[in-house]
Each structure stands twice: as structure tokens, then as C-alpha cells.
Write a structure and sequence with these properties.
- With 561 residues, this protein is α/β, with parallel strands linked by helices.
- It is 26% helix and 24% strand.
- A seven-stranded mixed beta sheet has the order 12-27-28-29-25-26-13, covered by helices on one side.
- Helix 11 crosses helix 12.
- Its main location: cytoplasm.
- It holds the Pfam family tRNA-synt_1c_C.
- One of its GO terms (cellular component) is cytosol.
């Protein structure tokens, strides 16, 4: 890494300094430590890219460690989803490990702390503990149980482990300093009783370690060299180091905790608790709803791993929390999809176009290029006939000079096909246009090389042949929240900002080449945006999700408000 010609972020500078101060390169080891109590979101994606990216840059192993210390909230479903998301992003972990792997060792160390007079069993209630802890400006007072004898503490702690007490009856606390200016150092809880089945250890344990106790010690067991956390863990660093001090062996690598800022994304929430609310209260269809900020939701919507990694790389690592506009993520998605998707034709708001001088019953198959961005240009065949669907907005009966699509008396080109001229319209009893009649120039076929085919017209529109069209359900997604920072005002429930128009389901028509498209396939619907096949698709029914438009239209909406 040191030899790379690039400016280093502050985390890379920390690693470089440690290497310069004698840490052997082969002792570098990183970890990504999710809690399996929900699905991963875009904030986790940045942390994944950071830790696994460092692993790649330094040729160092990265552990995937599940912080499974609260069986009341954790499930195997979440473990499986997390593994799937990390793999989908393109990363491979060295060891798959769990905090629960270390329950016995953590317990043994807790016994050691009790014997050294540095931990004690307490039976104060949560309310009493909060009261005796004091305030940031007022020191706490010692628990009346702080001076229990070592023997009594050992007895009570073993009985807690054996399940003799109800939840909340007892806790194990570290004995540190009730007057510390850092509230977290005021005799923090190390263990609590939880009577719930653990997804890996079942009913083996009745007591479970707190995150602060399990985190640093797990890092130490795995010989993690650098433990990177988000900024809210900065006050926890002192406690992380205190716990390590109690068990550290100088012959081993001592983990170092350092913090970086969260990068919040506009028009989303990235709190697992709030995401769970959205799921449980049916504001969305599930954790992988394409409107969610979860990695699973973004995958289902059609985002690519490359786009998310590029986004994480673009926003970088910072020391201050800030709000990143979601338009930047959408730009990264658009940029990647432009390179990799085939261009196809679909009509989402159809009106029938009849080419009156095209022979009835005739059809022809025209050449259409798949992806002009691809290294090797390939083509497919698309059917053309007398009756077509075009977008309703691509025709105006009375148009001004700035309208370059189809209107009466003017010419446009049908993409990959012919030049046509609008002639007349058919309307229903309410005055709505039901058909547009046009004539075509038979010599103007695209790519034919004729003089007529080279004639310049100002507009090109897409179309789908009516007899060959494949009906599809199309889900048009918008921002889930109307406010750029729905979680920013603690006085307002974030759900107040849910966008009532975040999903519109319409029926569209697509060219027949898409009939065999399968779940996850991605396309650019020409002139409309990027779409992918949803997992709800069946042999009888195609379902597409709109991933992102061809350009950022939200900025225009916001500028008008």
C-alpha cells in the first residue's frame, strides 16, 4: 500500500504509521462485525467496502464476525441475509466467526475480573442504576453492592449462568470509576440475564455479554489489528481499552479501535430499528422492498455491486457525519448500468399508432443494436407492423416549435425503423385520443443506405409492435421519503415524511425479446430509464422494477418547491 501513488485517508494513515512503528505487515487483520438483528443497509455497505477494501489493499485477511450477543432480537434469517449481501458486493471473508464462539472464554475472563476485584454482581434495577450513575456534570455514587465479597460475587454469577434467576434480577458490572467524566466508565454492565433461545447455542446460556465487553475481547481473540467503528463508538474507546488491559498478553497483537463518521443518505433512514418499523407496520413489503435503503432492497431494485462500491469510494471516509445526497448514489448506478445493459423498447403509457399506408397483415424484423457502449456491438431482431404502441407523451395534436416528437403534419423517425408523418387522430366520446394515424416513407428504413434513410429529422421516438407486444407489470419507484432528512427532527415522527407516491404500478408493453427475461436481468428501456426483472416474475407474467431514470429528475422537482 505504501508504494501506491494515491493520497491516503486518515484510516490508511493510521495503518501506515503502525507499520512504520514496527507492526509486521503479516499481523494486519480487519473485521466486519454486524449484529444479526436486521438486514444490512447502505451505511453498512460503506463499512463493508472500507474493511474489505483495506484487506485487498494490504493483502490482509478480513473476518466476518457476527455480534450475536442478544438472542431476543437475533435470527438465523438475518445471518443468512448478511452473508448473502457481503458476497453480492463482491467480497470474501477469511473466517466466519461469531461472538457466541467465545462465550466460554468471555465467561472465564469475567470470573478472572471478579477474582481480581474488578467486577461485581449487582441487583439494582435499570432505573436505580441510571439514577446512581449521575450526570455528565455530576459524579455517580457507588452501588450498595459494589463491595460484595469475591466469594459472594462468584456464587451469584455462577447461579446467574445456571438460570436460577429471572431476567433483570442480577447483572454483572465492571468495577471502574463512578466519578469518571466518561459516563461509560461508571461501572458498566458486562452481563445480563436473557431467557431466550439463541440461534446458535440454543438454551446453553442464560447470561449474555454486553457489546462493550464482547467487542474488544473478540477482536483480541481473533488478533484483529485494527477495529474500525462509526463515530458514536468514540466514547466507548476508553472502555474498549480498559477491558483489553485486564487480559492483554504482550506477546500478542493488541487491537486498536478507531472511529470514522457515518455517511447518512438523503431521503432515507438507516436505523435498523426504524427499518424494522417500516417492515412490521407494512409501509413496505419487506426488508428487500426496492424502496428500502437495505442492500437487499437495492439489489432487488436493480442496483449493481459495482455501483455501490463506486459510491462508497466516491464519498470516502471522513471524521465528521454528513448527509450525502441520494442523487450521487443514483449517478453511480446510472453510470454502471449505462455500460452493461442492453437497450430495448418498452411503452409504459401507450397510445395506438396506425401506419395507414403500411400493408395490412405484413410484418418485418428489423435490426436493433443491443448496447452501443459494449466493446463488441451486437444486434437483435425486433418486429415491425402496421399497428404500434408509442408513448402518449410523444404525440401532441397541437404542438409548438420546441416539440420535436410526433405531431400532425411533421416527420419523426421511429427508432431502428422508418420516418413517419402524423396525419390525423381518432378520439373517443370524451375527446381523448385513442388512435394516431400516420404515413411512412418506405425508402427511409434505418441503416438501408438510401437517400431517404439519411434524411435528417429532429425527433426519434420508440415504439412496440402491437401484435407482438408482451404485456408487463411495471413498478415505478420514487423516494420513500419526501424530506431529505426524515430522521433529522426528533420532534417529528420520521414516518410523517413517507412519500404516498413512492410506488406506482402500471401495465406496459415490451418488445418480444424480453419474453424470456429472468429475475435480476437488467435493461435500459430506451428514453425511459433503467429497469430490472423482479423476482415476482412468472412464466405467465413479467414484472419489472424501475431502477433509476436516465437523468436526475428529482433535482428539478426540488428546485421548483
Amino acid at each position: 500500500m505504501s508504494t501506491k501513488e494515491k493520497s491516503l485517508n486518515f484510516i490508511e494513515q493510521i495503518i501506515e504509521e503502525d507499520l512504520a512503528n514496527g507492526l509486521p505487515q503479516d499481523k494486519l487483520r480487519f473485521r466486519f462485525p454486524p449484529e444479526p438483528n436486521g438486514y444490512l443497509h447502505i451505511g453498512h455497505a460503506s463499512s463493508i467496502c472500507l474493511n474489505f477494501g483495506l484487506g485487498l489493499d494490504y493483502n490482509a485477511p478480513v473476518n466476518l464476525r457476527f455480534d450475536d450477543t442478544n438472542p431476543a432480537k437475533e435470527e438465523q434469517e438475518f445471518v443468512d441475509a448478511i452473508k448473502r449481501d457481503v458476497e453480492w458486493l463482491g467480497y470474501k471473508w477469511d473466517q466466519e466467526v461469531y461472538a457466541s464462539d467465545y462465550f466460554q472464554e468471555l465467561y472465564n475472563w469475567a470470573i478472572l475480573l471478579i477474582k481480581k476485584g474488578k467486577a461485581y454482581v449487582d441487583n439494582l434495577s435499570a432505573e436505580e442504576i441510571a439514577q446512581q450513575k449521575g450526570t455528565p456534570t455530576q459524579p455517580g455514587v457507588n452501588s450498595p453492592n459494589r463491595e460484595r465479597s469475591v466469594e459472594e460475587n462468584l456464587d451469584l454469577f455462577e447461579r446467574m449462568k445456571n438460570g436460577e434467576f429471572a431476567e433483570g434480577a442480577y447483572i454483572l458490572r465492571a468495577k471502574i470509576d463512578m466519578a469518571s467524566p466518561n459516563m461509560l466508565m461508571r461501572d458498566p454492565i458486562m452481563y445480563r440475564i436473557i431467557n431466550a433461545s439463541h440461534h446458535r447455542t440454543g438454551a446453553d446460556w442464560k447470561i449474555y455479554p454486553m457489546y462493550d465487553w464482547a467487542h474488544g475481547e473478540s477482536d483480541y481473540i481473533e488478533q484483529i489489528s485494527h477495529s474500525f467503528c462509526t463515530l458514536e463508538f468514540l466514547p466507548h474507546r476508553e472502555l474498549y481499552d480498559w477491558f483489553l488491559d485486564q487480559i492483554y498478553d504482550e506477546e500478542k497483537v493488541r487491537p486498536k479501535q478507531r472511529e470514522f463518521a457515518r455517511r447518512n443518505l438523503s431521503h432515507t433512514v438507516v436505523s435498523k430499528r426504524k427499518l424494522l418499523q417500516l417492515v412490521n407496520e407494512k409501509h413496505v413489503t419487506g426488508w428487500d422492498d426496492p424502496r428500502m435503503s437495505t442492500i437487499s432492497g437495492m439489489r432487488r431494485r436493480g442496483y449493481t455491486p459495482t455501483a455501490i462500491r463506486n459510491f462508497a469510494d466516491t464519498i470516502g471516509i471522513a471524521k465528521r457525519t454528513n448527509l450525502i445526497d441520494v442523487s450521487l448514489l443514483e449517478f453511480c448506478v446510472r453510470e454502471d448500468l449505462n455500460k452493461i445493459t442492453d437497450r430495448v423498447m418498452a411503452v409504459l403509457d401507450p397510445v395506438k399508432l396506425v401506419i395507414t399506408n403500411y400493408p395490412e397483415g405484413q410484418e418485418e424484423w428489423l435490426d436493433a443494436e443491443n448496447n452501443p457502449e459494449a466493446e463488441e456491438l451486437t444486434f437483435r431482431k425486433i418486429p415491425f407492423s402496421r399497428e404500434l404502441y408509442i408513448e402518449r407523451e410523444d404525440f401532441k395534436e397541437d404542438a409548438d416549435k420546441k416539440f420535436f416528437r410526433l405531431t400532425l403534419g411533421k416527420e419523426v423517425r421511429l427508432k431502428n425503423a422508418y420516418i413517419i408523418k402524423g396525419e390525423s387522430v381518432v378520439k373517443d366520446a370524451n375527446g381523448n385520443i385513442t388512435e394516431i394515424h400516420a404515413t411512412y416513407d418506405a425508402d427511409s428504413k434505418s441503416g438501408s443506405g438510401t437517400e431517404a434513410s439519411k434524411r435528417k429529422v429532429k425527433g426519434t421516438i420508440h415504439w412496440v409492435s402491437v401484435p407482438h407486444a408482451v404485456e408487463a407489470e411495471v413498478r415505478i419507484y420514487d423516494r420513500l421519503f419526501t424530506h431529505e432528512n426524515p430522521d433529522g427532527n426528533k420532534e417529528v415522527d420520521f414516518k410523517e415524511y413517507i412519500n404516498p407516491d413512492s410506488l406506482k404500478v402500471i401495465t406496459g408493453y415490451v418488445e418480444p425479446s424480453l419474453k424470456t427475461a429472468t429475475n435480476g436481468d437488467k435493461f435500459q428501456f430506451q428514453r425511459l430509464g433503467y429497469f430490472c426483472v423482479d423476482r415476482d416474475t412468472t412464466a405467465e407474467k413479467l414484472v419489472f422494477n424501475k431502477t433509476v431514470g436516465l437523468r436526475d429528475t428529482w433535482a428539478k422537482v426540488e428546485s421548483k418547491e
